[in-house]
Write a structure and sequence with these properties.
heterodimer; A: 298 residues; alpha/beta; D-Maltodextrin-Binding Protein, domain 2; 10-stranded mixed sheet; B: 291 residues; mainly alpha; MetI-like fold; two-stranded antiparallel sheet; 11 helices; 74% helix; globular
């Protein structure tokens, strides 16, 4: 009997120890351990940030790893804010951001003795998408603002049928959310009824399902969704022509909702990180930009 | 002499182990409190009573958690309403009526449901369930509280079934025999004798299921639409406490008001689960007193 208790105790203690040590390992793996280990054998780069850029960055990473088999590149999304936070915490080598770093974040970086260095690697148009069954195909910037701020709640207010508008937005940790708020909503708040979707793909999914919804996604996502969504032509004013977002219109500046995409590093890039960024802005890298539906930086 | 020393040592070790969890809970409370502390002064706790949650704004940020609380409450309520009847009936069937063969299949399959990762369930909800719900109610979108509630009911059912089933099965055989001997039918025995006797266990099962529902994050985040509006209708979009923390925590600047507000949300969530457990305990105690 007593022996049993003793065994039980030992078993309990050892599981406790085991779980503590495992937990500990995991924590260090995420931060420094992984990089320390790999420096001796292989080089590895972690890239974190914008969900809009995940597709582009991972395509870059694949092509880059093919050319440089001794360098591992791992890419994760999570939003520009998440990426910048990771850069400031030193848990990523490169941060992909679809917005510029904010003043608040720069201050924080100074406190942490991190100097974010910015590189524009591509441009992106934000496409406004609706369901193909919705007859509305053109909207002015003013109408978009009314829709997303909740001033206009029915499609008949913008030339459609009298159906309630379902607003789909990205989560507020998204660079696209902030950019769209600045550019289209003129810094007004989003409507309270706006549904905040955790990922771009969820917006595309919902727009294809829900007849009366409207959402905004990166141009690349809108193009790859193809027939499943209508890409709205955007007019800068009531009497101007509607412009469809495309590589040409974004580059020429005719399409109004466009922005640069950045890679941030801590200090001037060097080593593997530098060669990756160089690859991104090389002619080959910029071809990938075009192929994935974004617009080259130059 | 030696034995007594050993006993003491073992006793001490067990006490230490048992109090670890208390320590952890206390530490979590302290940590949450510490991180949320600044919110009391700037902008003040009154801000939490605001009716809108707009943490990212160029004009004025507001941190009202009322819509988040009503969102969580609504989803939890409906998930419980859906899960409880299914779970209890399943538990009764498995323990009282199912043959051995059926039991062998039913129990593991129901428990398998508990092992499905919530992201997978969320994905299923987004692609399959949301369109069905949308069509069934003739809505413009399926991203509503009810979709989340149905998904969460799926997650709560395994917990509720297996605990309730254990409780029913562990009622003394003599109860059943006595009832049958008095001429009661099997159905009468089950509903009038067995289920009441197992009630404390069933209540515990429901409470634990609710605990799972209120704390679940990923699946609700994917299907409830996450619009922070105050509503009592399950056909509206809601933003839950958990989804808010999960969606926004990764992004907030460390130590900002938004950051502190999220910790306040965490405290509210913790207090809620404490409250549920407390009620469950009280119900159990009262029942024990009666029987």
């Amino acid at each position: 009997m007593k022996r049993n208790v003793l065994f039980l105790l030992i078993a309990l203690l050892s599981t406790l120890l085991l779980s503590v040590s495992c937990g500990g390992n995991q924590a260090t793996d995420d931060a420094s351990g992984k990089r320390d280990a790999s420096q001796t054998q292989r080089q590895s780069i972690t890239i974190k940030g914008s969900d809009t850029m995940v597709h582009l960055v991972s395509t870059w990473a694949e092509a880059f790893m093919e050319k440089n088999p001794d360098i591992d590149v791992s890419v994760t999304g999570g939003g520009s804010g998440t990426g910048i936070a990771a850069l400031l915490n030193g848990t990523t080598d490169i941060c992909a951001a679809s917005r510029k770093i904010k003043d608040k974040e720069t201050q924080l970086a100074e406190q942490k003795e991190i100097t974010p260095v910015e590189k524009i690697v591509a441009r992106d148009g934000i496409a406004v998408i609706t369901n193909p069954e919705n007859p509305v195909t053109e909207l002015t910037l003013g109408q978009l603002k009314d829709i997303f701020t909740g001033t206009c709640t029915s499609w008949d207010g913008v030339g459609g049928q009298s159906e309630n508008i379902v607003i789909l937005s990205r989560e507020n940790n998204s660079g696209t959310y902030v950019f769209f708020q600045k550019k289209v909503l003129q810094k007004e708040d989003y409507a309270g009824s706006a549904r905040l979707m955790p990922a771009t793909s969820a917006i595309v999914q919902s727009v294809t399902d829900d007849k009366w919804s409207i959402g905004y996604v990166g141009l690349g996502f809108a193009l790859s969704a193809g027939e499943k969504v209508t890409v709205i032509k955007v007019k800068t004013s009531d009497d101007s022509e509607g412009v469809t977002p495309s590589e040409a219109t974004v580059r020429s500046g005719d399409y109004p909702i466009a922005r640069p995409l950045h890679l941030y590093t801590n200090g001037e890039p060097s080593g593997a990180v530098k060669s990756f960024i160089d690859f991104c802005i090389s002619a080959e890298g910029q071809t990938i930009v075009q192929e994935t539906g974004y617009v080259p930086a130059g | 002499m030696k034995h007594r020393w050993k006993d003491k040592a073992i006793r001490l070790a067990f006490t230490a182990l048992a109090s670890t969890s208390i320590l952890v809970v206390v530490l979590i409370f302290l940590f949450l409190g510490k991180e949320a502390f600044g919110f009391i002064f700037e902008p003040g706790l009154k801000e939490l009573l605001n009716t809108r949650w707009i943490p990212v704004s160029f004009k004025r940020e507001t941190f009202g958690i009322i819509p988040l609380i009503t969102g969580s409450a609504l989803v939890t309520l409906w998930a419980t309403l859906i899960a409880v009847p299914i779970s209890i009936l399943s538990a009764v069937y498995i323990s009282e009526f199912a043959g051995d063969r059926e039991k062998e299949i039913l129990k593991p399959v129901i428990e398998l449901l508990a092992g499905i990762p919530s992201v997978v369930l969320g994905f299923f909800g987004l692609i399959v369930l949301a369109p069905i719900v949308k069509q069934a109610f003739g809505l413009s979108t399926g991203l509503i509280a009810l979709t989340g509630a149905i998904l969460l009911a799926f997650m709560a059912i395994p917990t509720m079934v297996s605990i309730a089933e254990d409780a029913i099965r562990s009622t003394p055989k003599s109860f059943r025999n006595a009832s049958l001997a008095l001429g009661a039918s099997r159905l009468q025995t089950t509903w009038k004798v067995i289920v009441p006797a197992a009630l404390p266990g069933i209540v515990a099962a429901v409470m634990l299921g609710m605990g799972r529902v209120i704390g679940e994050t990923m699946a609700v985040m994917m299907v409830t639409g996450n619009a922070a509006i105050i509503t009592g209708s399950p056909l509206e979009s809601v933003r839950t406490l958990t989804a808010t923390i999960a969606a926004e925590m990764g992004e907030v600047p460390f130590g900002s008001t938004h950051y502190q507000a999220l910790f306040c949300v965490g405290i509210v969530l913790l207090i809620t689960t404490f409250f549920i457990n407390f009620i469950a305990q009280k119900v159990l105690e009262r029942h024990r007193d009666v029987t």
